[in-house]
Design goal:
Length: 146
């Protein structure tokens, strides 16, 4: 049973931050949430800055990367019970588990896969703690950062 739960913990259960409307990603809203300019979006998507756009002709790489980043944000929002202000604060606060950089900067530096692993493992740890009767919310653990 635990493996089944872990299998589905990689995708957010709800759309707390409103990144998806009618199951379509609002890529520009994701970029705005993280305060990413077109140059930074181009870097994380590995495309030319001139090709970054948010309309029907959005490059597949940009849409895919921003969807992955949006999912990470939704997982964090899930932990904060949908509180977008706390979620934004967490992404913008320097974290000693990331070498003193913010989760937002992890994304900007292309470390979103490591960030996703960290968030997924922290949520899993939190769920395990809750199932054992520990009513405290588990903070993201150091074991997940490695």
């Amino acid at each position: 049973m635990a493996h089944t739960a872990s299998l589905f913990n990689t995708v957010a259960a709800q759309n707390h931050l409103g990144f998806w409307a009618n199951q379509v990603l609002d890529a520009q809203k994701v970029a705005q949430f993280f305060d990413l300019d077109k140059r930074e979006v181009a870097k994380v998507a590995d495309v030319a800055p001139a090709s970054v756009r948010y309309d029907q002709k959005i490059p597949k790489e940009v849409a895919r990367r921003l969807a992955e980043i949006a999912n990470i944000a939704e997982l964090v929002a899930q932990h904060f019970e949908g509180d977008s202000a706390k979620t934004a604060l967490w992404f913008n606060t320097k974290n000693p588990l990331f070498g003193g950089i913010s989760p937002r900067d992890m994304i900007r530096y292309g470390r979103y896969a490591k960030l996703q692993r960290f968030v997924t493992e922290a949520l899993e740890h939190s769920a395990e703690s809750a199932s054992r009767g520990n009513t405290q919310h588990a903070a993201p653990s150091a074991r997940a950062a490695s």
